[in-house]
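Reopening: Spore coat protein CotF still failing for me.
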Amino acid sequence: MNNQQQKIQNPETQVPKTPQMNDRDFVNDILTTEKYMTDAYSNALNEASNQTMYQDLFSIFQETQDCQRNLYNLMFKNGWYSLEAADQQKIQQAYQQFSGYTSQLPIH
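Support: Ran it again with your exact input. Result attached.
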């Protein structure tokens, strides 16, 4: 693959470019908040000592994670979020590097 990474992106839905927040700005702001909340709930789950609290937090975590994923999908669908195509050679090298570690994993 050449030095320039291939972008994976849908056609961009145009939004007004003004000082006021537009739809892309609002969705991006909410997505950032949902990512932060997902991280915070994950930490809370790791430290929850009460099973009932853990179950309640886990339910909220799942809802937050689903919301984050839906917002990501909306941003990607509208061309407001792009990805870099993975270099197949790097993927193969990483696979070969770590394929010998299976005996160290708890489940194999």
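The radius of gyration is 19 Å. If you still see a failure, please send the error message rather than a screenshot.
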